[in-house]
């Protein structure tokens, strides 16, 4: 059951004027050379982390805007406190200043992967396919994404559920260096992901997943205000949970609003493992905290009158304050930052991107 | 994170004395020739459907027992009414008479598939790997089965959930002819499944799936008494929902008892599409009914004192009688047959296979 958008018989719309690529970085963006054929048609939003006096070189020919810490402080004023410093969590500033419908975000140590036939993978095109075709969170389809060419809903799939729901998030994967935590990195220093799994699937309603920010696309109008990467890095007791935090929040909100989250294709080539000792220091508290955070999100219920992403997110911040600040005072601060983030988002997006009520909640 | 059982460093135990292969059929079992290298070490339970006076030829060298309708009637007496006639749903009689811990069931139009490298797939070996390694129903792992070689839990996966739960069911897939319903067959007569997805994944807790009986393995001690394929075929208003019914029941019960259900590898080669017009006649009522059956199972709650599969199943039969017989009187009859099935199971399995309390419910 191929939708018009996702069929190989019709080319995938490239959404050139509707998608921004957001890249957090502390270095020159040489990695873009390999992505040139795929990224050059798009506008880039580069969020420079760390020392703002440093100059980031961007290869010629790319259309971009670059924000460093000074820019963030200038644009957001006191509300800049919600944007992390010295941590790639700062990328979410790019989501906020974008004016486009779709965002693709990628790390600067991610390169173009090859499929099993040796063909270079256009990750962005696959993300667009994922976002433009519906999700199926209410029932599992054993042949994976029923909207791909050559696939469909299998026998026993209820017909009333086959329309699916709008897709808000497309989570891509990584060949070579897998996204492991520090303990796993330490235990398995040589493990590489060589398995190309040719599948896209909807993460079922009610199920949480570990969302990695390395290779991620989303519909900013549908879910943007919930894509906050939290308080990490400089001055914070934790790191490497920025994307996880966003993933738990967006999943609870997508489930509530009747939106879909897909994972699987596309793969990128993740070139370099980060230092497991540095990572352990960043993750240390998170390893304990996540044992309480996960049950919190698994049991989080949003009231019916939360009909927009912003309302959902503010309600979630209340619940974080109420329930997680017992785990650590950090969550009290984080809950406040979640509110600041929404205030800043609304300020920069006054015509209310994502105030539109998603599918099924009009 | 490879378990001892599933690692490539240790051979997969073949469980020769612990597994029966159950095959429902109406014809000579020539298809076994292709499976000979894989199936010959095992005991086969052949459930002959239709005219019992017909002789089914089994290729030389296989160790088997064969039951026809006369045998079923003789062994079960009046309780034989719960076993379908003129429908492959009769296969569940084989689950009942088996004395082994594991069951693999396969249709006689399924042949050995090849992986993308051209190697013949030992489906049974993969099912055993799936059953012997834990499942992870409480949180989604984006790199799929974390217990496969070369894979693990990704960053952000809570450590307390990494032990997983026992796997009760392994649902394999099909290359070539996909398992489509009659309407899809009619609309897409030429669609073939050519996509080999190199993945095994746990179906998350709380999520239902369409379980196909073509290529299926399970742990009889853990879930056997719930693997009832219902009343189909001769004298019944419906067909082709036998495995679906079992799939909905086993999933609700596995979720309740803390057991896992996996889907994905292994593939078999499904050779021949059944007649879509015949199928439409069989499925017709099911197409309507499933729209009410799915919400019923999605909202089914089993009370805490249901601590064995039998107790769960009898409770489910009560709920079917109470809620689904409003949909059609057929469900009243089906609910009674569910009780008969458990009575017959207990009679043939007096030492209470699966009376053992599963993991986490001792």
Annotation keywords:
disordered C terminus, UDP-arabinopyranose mutase activity (chains A, B), 9-stranded mixed beta sheet, isomerase (chains A, B), homodimer, golgi apparatus (chains A, B), 362 residues, 10 helices, alpha/beta
Secondary structure tally: strands of chain A: 9
**Fraction of helical residues of chain A:** 25-40%
Low-pLDDT stretches of chain A? 1-8, 353-362
Overall, the morphology of chain A is: globular
Largest interface: A-B, 59 and 59 residues
Q: What CATH architecture label of chain A applies? A: Alpha-Beta Complex
| Count of spatially separate domains of chain A | 1
Overall CATH class of chain A: Alpha Beta
Largest sheet of chain A: 9 strands, mixed
The quaternary state of the protein chains shown equals homodimer
Q: For the CA atoms, what is the radius of gyration of chain A?
A: 19 Å
What portion of residues of chain A belong to β-strands? 15-25%
H and E string of chain A:
EHEEHHEEHEHEEHHEHHH
* CATH topology tier name of chain A: Spore Coat Polysaccharide Biosynthesis Protein SpsA, Chain A
| Class computed from helices, strands and strand pairing of chain A | alpha/beta
